[in-house]
Amino acid sequence: xxxxxxxxxxxxxxxxxxxxxxxxxxxxxxxxxxxxxxxxxxxxxxxxxxxxxxxxxxxxxxxxxxxxxxxxxxxxxxxxxxxxxxxxxxxxxxxxxxxxxxxxxxxxxxxxxxxxxxxxxxxxxxxxxxxxxxxxxxxxxxxxxxxxxxxxxxxxxxxxxxxxxxxxxxxxxxxxxxxxxxxxxxxxxxxxxxxxxxxxxxxxxxxxxxxxxxxxxxxxxxxxxxxxxxxxxxxxxxxxxxxxxxxxxxxxxxxxxxxxxxxxxxxxxxxxxxxxxxxxxxxxxxxxxxxxxx
Length: 294
Hints:
By secondary structure, this protein is α/β, with parallel strands linked by helices.
């Protein structure tokens, strides 16, 4: 099973957009990314020593790795795999068929967090994790604590409004709000936990643009002000702006993945009564109190 449950839309306009090159400078060092789309019948890229990231387009887990690689200012290429029509060599190379997959001189590394740490240790010139062992441990712990939030967001569905277990989402976001004690989870500059969470909060931000949803429009900004401020700051970071797909492309993709489960899911916040709203708020408040006492 891949980290991303979504598959790339089989549309010519999306396919063409993947065949692009972008050249920017980060931390006074050129970081060039070549994006290519690969499907069954396409040959495996030549082994020329360049770092390769095999990914799915619009996959938040893959976005983590691309953001980290850009932040480090290293030269790499991104290959978007068509998971509905995978190249044979990709299956042989990666029996788990998991993305993101890093290929560094024939060394294969999977799992987004593991890949980020591998890049950080292999190319130490620009660090993502702190050099201080205690701060590094804290960053890893925060990244671990934020992972369930990402999983919850991934499980949400939407059509005209957000559906799924909204109560669980509210509680998970309360954890993210509580952990945020500085501009970023890592202090004054973004690090591993910030990179882990951002693509998923960004997804909620894009979904909010094409649905009218009480949770996203009202509950989120009113109950998670630190998270909102953090998202705005992250969105304007050079490494984010450099690698982020144009928002209208991501929006078109997410619209193509809309579901119509809102009539079947009983935990939809948009249909909650005033009493249920109060219960949800009470649950979040009690959750925060319990965590503050621990």
